[in-house]
Amino acid sequence: MPTVYITGGATGIGAATVRKFATHGFDVAVFDINGEDVAKISAEIDTGSVHFFATDVRNRQAVRTSIAAAGEKLGAPDALFVNAGVQKLQGIFEMEDADIDLIIDVNLKGTLYTVAEAAALMRDAGKGGTIVLMASDQALVGKEGSIVYGATKAGVAQMAKSLALALSAHKIRVNAVCPATVKTPLTDHVFSWLADKHFDGDVNAAWAAEAQMLPIGRVAEPDEIAEVVFFLSQPTSSFMTGALVPIDGGLTAQ
Ligand SMILES: NC(=O)c1ccc[n+]([C@@H]2O[C@H](COP(=O)([O-])OP(=O)(O)OC[C@H]3O[C@@H](n4cnc5c(N)ncnc54)[C@H](O)[C@@H]3O)[C@@H](O)[C@H]2O)c1
Question: From the candidates 21, 26, 149, 230, which is the catalytic residue?
């Protein structure tokens, strides 16, 4: 049975990806701080193939311990999806130190810690594999109130390229996905911030404006991102490495 390791698999895009892999014959190791929602997914799928490892990706030792435990239980991963991330919108004149640290620690350092530990298992197993990093459209374009977040996602995108070079010798391919707005718990926060700032608190109006901004005329569903992550984790994408893949309804084509 092939194995995938997924960080941030409890809700949103990560949860959709857990479902996708689990229903396609993978053992899925989920690394997250939210065990409750992972337990719900596991019960819903009911194949016994979803395994939870409580992990705060900001803590390098915690990542090391959890990935070692997953390696013991399931073996080295065939695929890794580094997805855990947080967003907190803030204007340049209102940034709180704690928020800056949180966003950098989860999105950037968490990604680095996870790849370092999981890629070492893959290298030692000697069977190659795939890594998909979660960047964002904000690796490619700026957005209001998203200064720190955008910087971390541009960092993750750059990391994908350098990792692709570093890991090719081990037959490990590394790509990053760059989704535009997807309906998840993360964007609930974003749109209540935007609604307060520009739409007199009307969250529906904020969502409608976002949909209108995308050439395709709507935001994405988590499953639409999971499909691309799955493709990048399969032999069908065998000549892809170091790519930044927009999944953005045409946003960056403009
Ligand atoms: N929703 C969007 O529009 C969008 C667009 C582009 C990129 N992304 C990225 O997709 C990823 C998933 O976000 P989402 O939109 O599904 O939101 P989400 O909030 O539903 O998912 C984030 C996941 O990360 C986990 N997480 C948060 N902090 C963690 C920590 N310290 N350690 C371990 N796990 C932690 C959460 O528990 C959750 O399962 C993020 O990296 C986000 O930046 C989202």
Answer: 149
Q: Which amino acid is at 221?
A: E
Give 169's DSSP letter: G
Is 149 assigned a catalytic role?
A: yes
Ordered strands of the 129-134 beta sheet: 50-54, 27-32, 3-7, 79-82, 129-134, 172-179, 244-247
Q: Work out how many domains the chain is built from and give that number.
A: 1
Question: Does residue 27 contact residue 74 with C-beta atoms inside 8 Å?
Answer: yes
Q: Measured from the CB, is residue 34 less than 6 Å from ligand 1? A: yes
Q: Which domain holds residue 7?
A: 3-181+221-253
- Please state the atom number of ligand 1 nearest to the C-alpha of residue 16: 16
CB 18 less than 6 A from any atom of ligand 1: no
Q: How far apart are CA 5 and CA 153, in angstroms?
A: 20
In a domain, 210, yes or no: no
Question: What is residue 197's DSSP assignment?
Answer: H
Measured from the CB, is residue 179 less than 6 Å from ligand 1? yes
pLDDT in tens, 207-218: 999 999 999 999
Residue 186 maps to a domain: no
Contact 83, 13 (CB under 8 A): yes
Q: How far apart (Å, rounded) are the C-alpha atoms in residues 180 and 77? A: 28
Task: Establish if 211 belongs to a structural domain.
Answer: no
pTM: 0.98
Q: Encode pLDDT of 16-40 as tens digits.
A: 999 999 999 999 999 999 999 999 9
Report if residue 209 sits inside a domain: no
Which of 205, 204, 207 lies closest to 218, judged by CA?
207
Helices marked H in 25-167: 35-45, 60-74, 97-103, 110-125, 147-167
The Cα 38–Cα 50 span in angstroms is 8
